[in-house]
Amino acid sequence: xxxxxxPTSIKDIAKAAGVSxxxxxxxxxxxxxxxxxxxxxxxxxxxxxGYVPSAVGRSLVTRKTNTIGVVVTTIADPFMAEVVTGIExxxxxxxxxxxxxxxxxxxxxxxxxxxxxxxxxxxxxxxxASRMGARYTPLLTRMRVPLVLINNQFPEPFEHSVEIxxxxxxxxxxxxxxxxxxxxxxxIGDHLGHQSDAERYNGYRQALDxxxxxxxxxxxxxxxxxxxxxxxxxxRLLDLSHLPTAVVCYNDMTAIGALRAARAxxxxxxxxxxxxxxxxxxxxxxxxxxxxxxxQPKRRMGQLATGMLLDxxxxxxxxxxxxxxxxxxxxxxxxPPRSPDGVRG
Amino acid sequence: xxxxxxPTSIKDIAKAAGVSxxxxxxxxxxxxxxxxxxxxxxxxxxxxxGYVPSAVGRSLVTRKTNTIGVVVTTIADPFMAEVVTGIExxxxxxxxxxxxxxxxxxxxxxxxxxxxxxxxxxxxxxxxASRMGARYTPLLTRMRVPLVLINNQFPEPFEHSVEIxxxxxxxxxxxxxxxxxxxxxxxIGDHLGHQSDAERYNGYRQALDxxxxxxxxxxxxxxxxxxxxxxxxxxRLLDLSHLPTAVVCYNDMTAIGALRAARAxxxxxxxxxxxxxxxxxxxxxxxxxxxxxxxQPKRRMGQLATGMLLDxxxxxxxxxxxxxxxxxxxxxxxxPPRSPDGVRG
DNA sequence: ATGAAAGCGCTAACAG
DNA sequence: CTGTTAGCGCTTTCAT
Lengths: 345, 345
Known about the structure:
Oligomer: homodimer
Strand content of chain A: 5-15%
């Protein structure tokens, strides 16, 4: 007698309560059409039977899953993690669940992952640091699934996005360094071709230009947005015969790597060389030295993007491009240079 | 003419190809029963039509969603984030998607979240640092959904779990401190009643007992597993008239908070006081000073737990309790004490 | 190798 | 206020 047991369904409850499925359905949804007592009785029975209505059955008819898909490069990246906290909180608040997937910053994986979301019929999708950006439009239009991008890395604007205003922030950071007396300021970027990197580089460049500082290309190095890449790039910079007195890093992880490399070269930051980050991760206060950086409102960005997506889902109109502003956070990794140019003292 | 458009379904493809739904279904699943040419033709048509089969329709009949639910306290916690990376990678590898939810370490929210997972008919559930532990058993047994816990915080063993072997690791850490010459060693814990905390405390206690060190209760303080709690607890410890020479912290976040408090009290670590963490978060190398800690194989734990869950789903038998071992990582936050007891020098 | 038919669990007109 | 009916998109016997 190996009968396959199936979880109790709405029919079981209907039978137990001596009513129709519709009545059960309505009672459980709190429909005002149902007699209060019957509704109560049904709820009691359902509860006693341990009945948990199936969202998949429901979704099939309502064509809504109350689920959003979010794709990150990797959730181990603390920037992503903080944005996702904001997303999950806002989504949950509105009754949505979140499907999470990692793309490892590969366009291929990103596409696969979005397709798996589509197959699962998510109501909307959120992509952080997308490599594909505008290329989604055809697919998503066809599927009628709204998409919003957070810090789009694809070099074309996307219809719905929330982004940090990179250039002004990066420029403010560089100007701060210039005000401290630096003239020879290097830049460690992200992978080539990423949009945030391009914009942050532009901000850096603008500040230099406005200050009338002309710098050779040997002062810009490419990292990978992570500690390792930052350390390597910094290593290359420190092999230069004519050292920079400061370096603007693409983000905090890069800066942490640069910090490591500086230490490995027996350089003391900021005495021997100044360094700045971008993001303001929670660790910035506790690195050695604490990092001067730009604060991105990470949770807020997650929340804003989720809000935009929910607006789209509800057919409400909304601002399609949200730019948030960064904020300079001065800590201890930048100080006036010992000598105005970078000749080792 | 405001016709509601619905996404193309299997029927549309069947009609377009002049075959039945069954044939389309089989062709798309790569069933060997279908003529190779028809199958190819159908696939082409489906692709051209941009047809994406609905997992919700499929799930309704197969009673499988290929989804697992994972609940964390908060994904902003870097420990959680690293475990989740491992989970997502392993799940994805096996064709599963992950639903992510945050419990904020509240038993109430944890329960709500698990129920929402059940409603969505996830195939299995993974809970990190669960506050509810064994209390799930009835619900999940009824729903026939396997659950595995990672670092269960509920003070009873749970049927399926992967856990760090806390006591030996914590004891090794404390013994290391004793070997350095410390006698007055404090402990900053987590919220009271959490299992990991109790076990780590026990390890600490064992080491002291074996060394014949008797310490008063004023040397154990409670934190909250986060930076703020660590800082506060350390503050209280540093108000003692007779200071400890070393403090064992529940985890790295706590230790980072303790580091801040020490700095605020103008104490230099490890010269004035030694400090240890637990977890080995990626930042440990870059704090000031770098943290001596216990490494937890975080991704591996995520992967192991996912593997166990998949075994359960497949009806394979598996080791129900996996314990992984921590590893002492010596860095620079602990050193021999200046004076053997903690009288301020 | 293919089709017809039934049904997964639920909701939503529509009727009463 | 409640029941009947149909159908969401798919898979899966069972025939053929």
